[in-house]
């Protein structure tokens, strides 16, 4: 049968690695012979086809293995050359086994099976099973390597290992392949799952690995689909009171609390979740990613200050005033204290963040104020328990036409240690219109538009504040606590009531006779038992009884004895009373009524 040029011919034998390439080429040749029908032709035609397809290097190997059969006539039983065939070819490239096979084949007409057998002997060297097994055990799945490829590598190498019993020739290749799949798998989570499972066969292990690989790919697909949009918030000055929001959908975002790459489950496992920021004091983010605005020198512009003093209501604004003064001009002096309008910022994007603003939420009682009549004008003062001095704006002093007292210079700093300009002092007589009483106090005149403030000392002097209760701190040392609670540490303590122990109906009494006690402990043991009887812990039993328990004696480091009872058989015969142990929340709720 003529070969069609359009037939898919096997490629020539690659001489790079004959041991690896020859089995594959032989398989392709057999498939070609079956597909083209040449398997049914004569030996001469089959060998000719073999030599035609194997290539130049394969033909050289054939000439080496069959030096006297290069002529087609002698190949199939024709006249041979005058020189008789010898085994001199063993000195050439073929090894001894191939030479012996060649010598025997040369004496008769060769067949295709003889040629293939000689090529098997020549191309496949003698195996070292220990080396092949070592190569098999060194195969591990690489990162991002498909499981099917990893399994194929193991099965290919396993073919060279000949995993079979020497006595019964039973194959244990599946067992070795299963163990190597579990040991060499790259995913440690899957490996732990396989180790926790029972002694699964190879089929189940392969199925579990393929299922896990498919599930991992699906999970990555879901995570890409569930990508979140993160809003970027910025604070603007001037007339912009609301932070602008910028959406980013295409760029890869990071967590705005810790800086790590953001994904769907990151919020639950964020490392900054329980961290307190050292900048703003809030929990949930690192200082590097703090979004709280940093206050500047709050001397304030006239426009912004006037708006804040006029009482413009701003939503979600809270203010705490802290004012102090220093007699020296050194800002870093220990007596230097701060004066600042401290904002309690909310972490909402629509909140209005302002500085030097006295506005509060409508209807709230967060700010305490008091009106006094000064120079026939009603002035509203803010009560601030965190201020050490009184403060009044320069524009209020100018409106009341009050003289300034420059008796002493002051240095006032705000919360961020920024200098606040002081024009001097004024002495005001404040008349309470409700009680018709008057009080005098000195005020620092500041260069901003804050609401007039009464400090802590002045509030107490005017009778506006009164300490209702105070907490006393006690030293936490052990001796002081014991001395103040002597009654709790004397005696054993007795609970009211009588406890009745009920035995089971089928209880069998147990007798354990007394163990011998060292003579050196007799006197001390008697004294300890007598003391326990005096305290009402034990009582003397001078009559026959069905239950006798062991007594254990332990000597303490201070020389005294600890006497313990071992009623193990008795405990097994006691009827238990099962109660639910209350939690602390239950006890607190009962105490609260």
Give a short account of the largest sheet. Answer: 3 strands, mixed
Query: Rounded to an integer, what's the Rg over CA atoms?
Result: 50 Å
CATH architecture of the largest domain: Beta Barrel
Distance between the termini: 106 Å
CATH superfamily of the largest domain: Acid Proteases
Q: What is the CATH fold-level name of the largest domain?
A: Cathepsin D, subunit A, domain 1
- CATH uppermost class of the largest domain: Mainly Beta
Helix content estimate: 25-40%
What is the strand arrangement across the widest sheet? 5-6-12
What's the shape? flat
Verbal overview:
With 593 residues, the protein is of the alpha+beta class. The chain folds into four domains: 18-123, no CATH class; 129-225, Non-ribosomal Peptide Synthetase Peptidyl Carrier Protein, Chain A, CATH 1.10.1200; 314-461, Cathepsin D, subunit A, domain 1 (Beta Barrel), CATH 2.40.70; 503-533 and 546-593, Roll (HIV Type 1 Reverse Transcriptase, Chain A, domain 1). It is 32% helix and 12% strand. It is built from 17 helices and 14 strands. The chain is flat and about 140 Å long.
């Amino acid at each position: 049968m003529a070969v069609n040029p359009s037939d898919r011919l096997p490629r020539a034998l690659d001489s790079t690695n004959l041991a690896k390439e020859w089995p594959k080429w032989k398989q392709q040749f057999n498939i070609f012979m079956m597909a083209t029908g040449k398997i049914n032709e004569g030996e001469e035609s089959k060998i000719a086809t073999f030599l035609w397809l194997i290539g130049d290097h394969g033909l050289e190997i054939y000439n080496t293995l069959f030096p006297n059969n290069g002529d087609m006539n002698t190949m199939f039983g024709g006249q041979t050359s005058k020189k008789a065939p010898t085994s001199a070819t063993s000195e050439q490239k073929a090894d001894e086994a191939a030479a012996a096979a060649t010598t025997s084949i040369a004496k008769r007409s060769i067949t295709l099976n003889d040629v293939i057998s000689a090529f098997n002997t020549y191309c496949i060297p003698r195996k070292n099973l220990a080396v092949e097994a070592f190569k098999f055990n060194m195969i591990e799945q690489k990162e991002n390597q498909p499981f099917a490829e990893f399994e194929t590598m193991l099965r290919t190498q396993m073919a060279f290992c000949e995993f079979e019993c020497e006595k019964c020739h039973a194959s244990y290749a599946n067992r070795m392949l299963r163990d190597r799949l579990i040991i060499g798998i790259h995913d440690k989570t899957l490996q732990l799952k396989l180790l926790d499972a029972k002694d699964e066969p190879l089929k189940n292990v392969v199925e579990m690995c393929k299922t896990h690989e498919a599930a991992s790919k699906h999970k990555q697909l879901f995570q890409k689909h569930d990508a979140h949009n993160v809003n970027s918030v910025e604070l603007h000055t001037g007339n912009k009171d609301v932070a602008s929001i910028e959406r980013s959908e295409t760029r890869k975002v990071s967590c705005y609390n810790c800086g790590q790459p953001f994904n769907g489950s990151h919020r639950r496992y964020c490392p900054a979740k329980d961290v307190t920021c050292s900048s703003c004091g809030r929990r949930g983010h690192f200082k590097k990613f703090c979004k709280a605005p940093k206050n500047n020198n709050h001397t304030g512009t006239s426009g912004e200050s006037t708006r804040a003093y006029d009482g413009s209501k701003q939503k979600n604004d809270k203010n705490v005033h802290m004012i102090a003064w220093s007699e020296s001009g050194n800002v870093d002096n220990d007596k230097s204290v701060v004066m600042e309008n401290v904002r309690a910022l909310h972490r909402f994007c629509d909140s209005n963040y302002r500085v030097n603003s006295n506005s509060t939420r409508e209807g709230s009682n967060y700010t305490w104020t008091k009106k006094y009549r000064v120079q026939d004008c009603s002035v509203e003062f803010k009560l601030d328990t965190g201020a050490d001095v009184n403060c009044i704006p320069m524009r209020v002093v100018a409106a009341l036409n009050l003289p300034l007292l420059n008796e002493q210079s002051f240095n006032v700093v705000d919360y961020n240690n920024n200098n606040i300009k002081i024009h001097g002092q004024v002495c005001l007589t404040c008349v309470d219109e409700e009680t018709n009483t008057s009080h005098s106090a000195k005020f620092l005149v500041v260069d901003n538009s804050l609401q007039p403030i009464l400090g802590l000392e002045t509030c107490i002097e005017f009778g506006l504040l009164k300490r209702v209760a105070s907490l006393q701190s006690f030293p936490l040392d052990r001796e002081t606590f014991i001395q103040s609670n002597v009654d709790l540490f004397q005696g054993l303590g007795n609970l009211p009531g009588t406890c009745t122990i009920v035995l089971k109906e089928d209880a069998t009494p147990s007798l354990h006779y007394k163990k011998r006690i060292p003579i050196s402990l007799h006197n001390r043991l008697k004294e300890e038992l007598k003391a326990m009887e005096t305290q009402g812990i034990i009582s003397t039993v001078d009559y026959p009884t069905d239950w006798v328990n062991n007594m254990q004696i332990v000597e303490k480091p201070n020389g005294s004895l600890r006497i313990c009872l071992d009623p193990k058989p008795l405990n097994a015969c006691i009827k238990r009373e099962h109660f639910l142990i209350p939690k602390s929340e239950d006890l607190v709720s009962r105490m609260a009524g």
